[in-house]
């Protein structure tokens, strides 16, 4: 081996080692990955990110579970309600973004999302048009609450309830309870108060409609602002801790998140059906379809009452009137109906609330809301938004029918709106993650090469120095000795 080749090997070895260490210290290739991810994180017409935002490929399912009351007579006499969970009734949810409009040089984009629900029989327990559910008579309970301060109206309401044989409980099909039915009592109210609808349904007017125009930031100025909500129905940046009304904050609408996620990031989500935003924090690291994810979930603190989390005092309405932990009064968003939201089966709610109903069994895995996000790209890999609709029921003076009833947060229905990445998108993301891993490992590959060259260099130098030892070469060579 020529001497120069040995020196070249040695020099390259040192060079590669130095380069690899410099690259590692300077995070160069990590930064290249980060820059690429950041550059991709912008809504711009024509890009794949944009297409996926306009019509997200993974299917979204909305599943409803109802609580069928088995002892209505006994509840009226003051006994604990017994409920039986019936579900799921599953609907595929289609939600393309429409009326998309870019403003301010492409830094903002406005859009509406029309949600359409299509029933999926093979993912459901029965036919929503046939299955009957007995539950609290929400229109009647609302009317009782709203009329509680007027003796005269109370007399009229009582007479009407008698005449139409309406009571504290009602039985309707799943379809009617969700999508609306013409209610006897509401029809009466409607004749004197035309702005009150004669139809009741938990998701009435929610099919094939949108919840208003959102204005998002595109992420053009800063990837951290990608799809951050700026405006909802003309309302701008309201402070979400102190505002009681149906408000909003910065944060996304639950479909896309910032890339390069850290475990100490806090995710703010706005939800128009919660009438507020909630936040989620890192909970665990999981793997979904071979993709590593961070699981984020709202901490118990989000719905804790003011004695446990003073920041939540804004949700005590009227001021000072706090509910037990785990409950959210959304009455003001529901035309005064005494609707209280919680997690399904009162998960994370006060023990007294859970124990007030027989048939309620909170299970963390089934009943918590969570988001599984790819830490590198911020892509939603899997998510489930779960909540429960309850009605506040109590004794109201002047209404004998409520005379013996306990004060209850009566569960009516819970839902699970879930999404899981489709196989095609998962495959695409896995190859992006692989590429990123390869690129991020380039310094180590260079370092490896440097080490291999270093070993070759060492071997060669040892051999050469042995060959150079004077007078020994010839004697040690057996070939020469025998010749
Ligand atoms: C996006 O680009 C296409 C083709 O250039 C155009 O037809 C479409 O109107 C654009 N969309 C928006 C929201 O600007
Ligand atoms: C858009 O960009 C142009 C050129 O960069 C600038 O002159 C203009 O003020 C910008 N307009 C808005 C609304 O930001
Ligand atoms: C919602 O509307 C769509 C189209 O208007 C219809 O096909 C679908 O059956 C409706 N879903 C329900 C639950 O009524
Ligand atoms: C709910 O309870 C009512 C009354 O007991 C019963 O008629 C109905 O069949 C039950 N619903 C389902 C879906 O089991
Ligand atoms: C979102 O709002 C919170 C509270 O108002 C603020 O502290 C935070 O910096 C905002 N986040 C972003 C990304 O603008
Ligand atoms: C918070 O809830 C607990 C029980 O869950 C209750 O004892 C306490 O009074 C509530 N705090 C306020 C301020 O209402
Ligand atoms: C819910 O809030 C409304 C006002 O928005 C209030 O009148 C009602 O008393 C509250 N309900 C409960 C159970 O605290
Ligand atoms: C949604 O949550 C319910 C429990 O609330 C669970 O039984 C169901 O399997 C979940 N659906 C999906 C698609 O994950």
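-> sequence recovered:
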């Amino acid at each position: 081996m020529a001497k120069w080749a040995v020196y070249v090997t040695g020099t390259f070895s040192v060079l590669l080692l130095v380069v690899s260490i410099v690259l590692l210290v300077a995070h160069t290739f990590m930064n290249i990955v980060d820059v690429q991810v950041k550059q991709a994180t912008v809504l711009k017409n024509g890009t794949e990110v944009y297409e996926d935002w306009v019509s997200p490929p993974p299917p979204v399912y909305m599943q409803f579970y109802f609580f069928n009351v088995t002892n209505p007579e006994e509840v009226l006499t003051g006994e604990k309600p017994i409920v039986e969970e019936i579900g799921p009734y599953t609907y595929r949810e289609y939600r393309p973004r429409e009326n998309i409009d870019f403003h301010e040089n492409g830094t903002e984009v406005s859009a509406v999302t029309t949600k359409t629900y299509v029933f999926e029989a093979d993912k459901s327990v029965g036919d929503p048009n046939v299955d009957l559910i007995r539950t609290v008579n929400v229109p009647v309970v609302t009317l009782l609450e709203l009329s509680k301060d007027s003796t005269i109206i109370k007399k009229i309401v009582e007479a009407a309830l008698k005449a139409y044989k309406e009571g504290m409980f009602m039985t309707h099909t799943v379809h009617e309870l969700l999508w609306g039915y013409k209610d006897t009592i509401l029809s009466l109210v409607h004749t004197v108060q035309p702005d009150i609808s004669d139809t009741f349904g938990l998701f009435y007017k929610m099919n094939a409609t949108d919840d208003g125009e959102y204005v998002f930031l595109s992420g053009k100025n800063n990837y951290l602002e990608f799809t951050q909500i700026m405006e909802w129905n003309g309302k701008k940046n309201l402070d979400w801790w102190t505002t009681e009304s149906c408000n909003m904050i910065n944060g996304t609408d639950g479909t896309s998140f910032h890339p390069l996620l850290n475990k100490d990031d806090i995710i703010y989500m706005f939800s128009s059906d919660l009438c507020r935003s909630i936040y989620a924090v890192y909970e665990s690291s999981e793997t979904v379809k071979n993709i590593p994810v961070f699981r984020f979930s709202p901490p118990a603190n989000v719905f804790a009452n003011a004695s446990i989390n003073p920041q939540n005092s804004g949700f005590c309405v009227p001021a000072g009137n706090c509910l037990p932990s785990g409950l959210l009064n959304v009455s003001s968003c529901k035309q005064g109906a005494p609707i209280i939201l919680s997690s399904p089966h009162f998960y994370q709610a006060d023990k007294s609330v859970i124990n007030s109903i027989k048939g309620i069994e909170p299970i963390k895995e089934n009943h918590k809301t969570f988001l599984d996000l790819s830490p590198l790209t911020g892509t939603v890999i899997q998510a489930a938004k779960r909540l429960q609709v309850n009605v506040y029921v109590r004794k109201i003076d002047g209404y004998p029918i409520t005379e013996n009833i306990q004060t209850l947060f009566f569960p009516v229905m819970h839902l699970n709106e879930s999404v899981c990445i489709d196989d095609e998108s998962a495959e695409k993301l896995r190859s992006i993650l692989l590429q990123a891993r390869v690129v991020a490992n380039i310094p180590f590959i260079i370092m490896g090469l440097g080490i291999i060259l270093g070993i070759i260099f060492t071997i060669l130098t040892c051999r050469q120095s042995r060959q150079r030892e004077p007078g020994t070469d010839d004697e040690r060579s057996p070939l020469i000795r025998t010749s």
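The pocket of 2-acetamido-2-deoxy-beta-D-glucopyranose (ligand 7) is lined by residues 317-318, 321, 323, 329, 331-332, 392 (CB under 6 Å).
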